[in-house]
Amino acid sequence: MKRIVVLGGGFAGLWSAVGAARKLDEHGVRPDEVRVTLVDQNDFHSIRVRNYEEDLDATIVPLAQVLDPAGVERIRGEVTGIDAEHRAVRVRTDAGVQVLHYDRLVYALGSRLRQPPIPGLQEHAFDIDTYQEARRLQAHLRGLAGQAGDPERLRVLVVGAGLTGVELACELPARLGKLSAQASDRPAPQVILGDASPFIGSDMGGEARTVIAKALAALRVETRTGIAVASVDRGGVTLADGSRIDAATVVWCAGLRAHELGEALPGQKDALGRLEVDEFMRVRGVPGVFAAGDAARAVLDGTHASVMSCQHSRPMGRHAGHNVAADLIGQPMLPLHIDRYSTVLDLGPWGAVYTDGWDRRVIAAGAPAKETKRIINRQRVYPPLSGDRAQLLAAAAPVVEGPPQVARPA
Ligand SMILES: Cc1cc2nc3c(=O)[nH]c(=O)nc-3n(C[C@H](O)[C@H](O)[C@H](O)COP(=O)(O)OP(=O)(O)OC[C@H]3O[C@@H](n4cnc5c(N)ncnc54)[C@H](O)[C@@H]3O)c2cc1C
What we know:
Helix 1 (11-26) runs parallel beside helix 2. It contains nine helices and 24 strands. With 410 residues, it is α/β, with parallel strands linked by helices. It is 29% helix and 26% strand. Strands 5-2-1-9-20 form a five-stranded parallel beta sheet, covered by helices on one side. It folds into two domains: 2-112 and 256-340, FAD/NAD(P)-binding domain, CATH 3.50.50.60; 115-252, FAD/NAD(P)-binding domain, CATH 3.50.50.
């Protein structure tokens, strides 16, 4: 029996595994001829893009609900090593260390929050990089609200005004407002959004930045640009110029980096630590290994490289899955070509902003963009949960979806 091993059950890994199962099914290859195995440290698939939201319950999907009907084997464990020369992966599970041998591998361990070596950052800052961390932040804020006394205790500093930081900062006033209303002394909700760069939301381009500024002002989020955090402590941060920003909660949202295990693979990496892949998602220079999602860098249209995003991770995953199986069974592979790019950024109760194209033209703002974002976050990025094998396999076909339609507010 041959084996395809997929590392990671995020947007890229999940669709790689189901995509491989789909391709094998199409050619009548039985699971006892080629087994597809997915390894993840969690037993759930995280809709990570929703980690800034208040209600986290619906943001996780049991992996078994998707993988079992697709006929994909699942191993819960932490990948601790990859030996590309001997085609083996080391996994730490509850039952001990397992070594999995593969014929083909899909590396999809994603990305992690970039945490520079700033004193106190690891101990005192919160983040929303993973479901567990988002839950920890939520529990911390609830705990603070419940401790009557300090009227400033619901003051939150979000560091990093990229997409994640802006979404969280816009969501927090309403979340903190609810917590305040439940507290006997009604502490004032206060949100500060800070960034080292001279602009808030600099990744979104000038046109969208104007919309973001309007939303932040309406939501009474204070902004601080050009700041350099020198250290973090329980009461806030000290800046490089010696001044302070006091806050009972500091949330670090300053950038992502590809998972460090990619370093164990010999292929070329970019500045974000991503493995360079060709149009078939094969890691350049590493036979038998494919990569997808935040862990990989693919050129999508001859010019633009993939962006660490769910928008690119899902089609990269579906193509990696198709191609890893096709390669193993001697079928033609399909190149990935994506010639569009759009971003819908949540701006909390104010609405959202939708930009289209690499030049980020604003095509909707406010309520229609918000409804579009709601559909993306609650429907579009979820796998089918019906348990219907045919439906699941069909959803894993190697296609690139069209841009989200601007929705009419409900
Ligand atoms: C708060 C937030 C908001 C975002 N908003 C957007 C958005 O609006 N639009 C957008 O396109 N993108 C957004 N992103 C980015 C998007 O979430 C990522 O690009 C996407 O999750 C990447 O998918 P992936 O499968 O490559 O990696 P990941 O989602 O990182 O998945 C990696 C998987 O590997 C597993 N794993 C990691 N290490 C190990 C290990 N050692 N052993 C076993 N398993 C392991 C993890 O448990 C996880 O399941 C957002 C991200 C965050 C954090």
